[in-house]
Description:
Mean pLDDT: 87
Helix content: 25-40%
Structural class: alpha+beta
Shape: globular
Radius of gyration: 23 Å
Distance between the termini: 28 Å
Amino acid sequence: MNGGIQTASGCSKPKDRPHSEADRNFWLAYARAISQAVGFAPGNPGRALYLAAKAQTAPVPTLTNKRGAEHRNRWIYEVSNNLLRRSGLLYDPESKETYAQALKTFLEAVDFGGTAEQTERADDALNRLNEVLSSYERSRQQALKVFLKQESMGLTGDSDFERWLIGNGVAVQHQRRELDRAAAEYQVIVSPSLEPETQQLLRDWNLVFQAIVGDNHLPGVTMPAARTTAETRLQLLRALRSEVKVEKPKHQEYLPQCALSVSYDKKMREWIENGQTYEMEDMYLRFDEGKIADEKMFGQDPDDRVNDDLGYTPWLAFVRDGDEECLQEDIGKGDVDMMVTFEDSGVFTVENGAWDLGDVRTKYPALRRDTPPSVRDFAAPQQLIVLKRLAMKLTFSERLRRRVDEMMKRFPGPDGFVRIMGVPVTLGGGSSNDTTSYTGVWDPSQGVLEVTPTDDAGFATVVGTIGRKVTSPDDQT
């Protein structure tokens, strides 16, 4: 989650250069508006509000007879198992880093009381384990691509992915055996140095490790999941209205178990069934409001030594084929008038499986002296912040209109979109795709960009998360 100094080549910033003033001001203004909308108060020192640098379509509620559960499980995992940095305001849902992985890394940094030689051997074994785990994941993903291609050609018959692997996944099976050996080697090295009462450390580590590996169903630890696309999301919405049947996917994996509260299902059904109510709430994001905002008002630890800022990303980016470009012009008071509207909001609890160890700082207070600060810098996703039918209207000053118009013309079509305050928007069109559930209409004569949710999947958007800080900046070894 790099911040947003605008460079000639795009939006990313060099590590030794600060974010732009516009990025900081608009994100802080947005955070302030969101916190007021959902009633978040930073009085609890253990909680903080985080914003999604890339907003996500909210999962549909549970279907009758658990139809489509595998697709929905994946959807829930993608919105709820994000890595939240205790010292940052924004998080990136597209990052490969997750809360579960942060727990694993934390446990591996616990001082297990070994000698210098044992610690060195454990480090070597852990490095090998992580290398083998990466190789295993790559082999499994490559095998899945082959399976999907053969399935599309009708060559897999009734076999699902796991059964297909038995006869076709030699490399995957080899990597899995290597992974088992590497995990056993690491645990053998650590185990003798532990007191009997602290054997819980290895049990906890193994629980999180098995949840991450994700190739077996462990009740209370992992859950079956299948890929979600715009097509499957639309299918689930239609199934909610009993229009279509959702077939059980032949390709699935197992992810760390997570769920959303019963209140989430109830509220999403209400939002979907009621449709568009036109009872809007407004949020006005102004450059000057963010300028005077206090970075400490959302519960973060911005003075911590891990980050030099709150992880600001570009408030406005034009994206195509993975490349981003931002406005090069300086932005000041009156250059952008931004209005964000929504019909309703909600904060919904994330309910994780047994792999979520809770307050690991209290359970394992002693970390090794060489533990980098980043290992401590994470928070547990606790609640999702969801807005119903989020929409936006941006009016650019005459000074900026021509430049914005030029960029709008360079990023059209199905592969190009605009990201505004984390919300990806396709220019033109009226249906969702794998990237976004929002469409935008640009009026160059007035300098106005209007953003609306699609009818097929834009019913609700996850714009942020409330996290519980499971570690503290005062953690010292």
